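Page 42, continued from yesterday. The earlier attempt failed because a stray header line got pasted into the input along with the sequence. Redoing it now with the clean sequence only.
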Amino acid sequence: MLNIFKKTVFAIVAFALMSGVTFAGSSIVIKGSTTVLPIAQGTLEAFMKKNTDVQISLSGGGSGEGMKALIDKTADIATSSREIKKEEVELAKAKGVSPVAHVVANDAIVPVVHPKNKVKNLTIDQLSQIYQGKITNWKEVGGDDLKIVVISRDSSSGTFESWDHFVMKKAKVAPQAQMLASSGAVVTAVAKNRYAIAYVGIGYLNKSLRPLQVNGVTASAKTALSKEYPLSRELYMYTDGEATGDTAKYVAFVKSAEGQKIVVKEGFVPLMDVKKAGKSKK
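This time it went through. Structure tokens are written below.
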């Protein structure tokens, strides 16, 4: 299971910031997507071991919060599970910020249910009707006679917006849906509720969840890269202009073979074949 709350690094950085300690080297602030959080956490720890004079602070809150922090110049990097919106670009330009996208991984949004749920596949139309509240019982889609509990990410989430793009197509999520603030909270909620359905990035799958096929296609690294899986997307880090200094070094590290191995370790889909990349360096 993902360990997204690795408290040691957070505690060190938080203590230093609150106590006014000045680091000898530079510092990088990263804010944004909880989907990208495990990738950022794993890569920053590896990067800081190699670059001991660089301190990196990291927090989630959602892709929208990351974009806001970048635009307000309170973050050096905004992590996002969606592309920046047109209105965000316009607001950024008005504040003298020029967002530049760096694709750092690939992902698949996977509908998930409790392991005891016998449903294995749903179509995009069925998913949309469930989330609109038009299908309300699992027996309507081949499951047991149980009421469906709909769980969604909150509206500041890039994953929510990707779900809206792929599945809802601007239709409204039913008002009775539970709107949760992080991917970790979604995993916990579904694992404890036999009636629930939700959606997470592929890196959040674990034994406490049953992933569903969509339109008969299983989410995997192969189907995400080929876009055969219909809910495939890219994951981003945004900087103000082209990254420079230690921020540029960190972004380059995330996209390197070593960084992409961490992407794989965290359960996401790399930009490259990391095995071939590793061999080519030998």
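Notes: Residues 43 and 254 are 6 Å apart (CA to CA).
Reminder to self: strip header lines before submitting.
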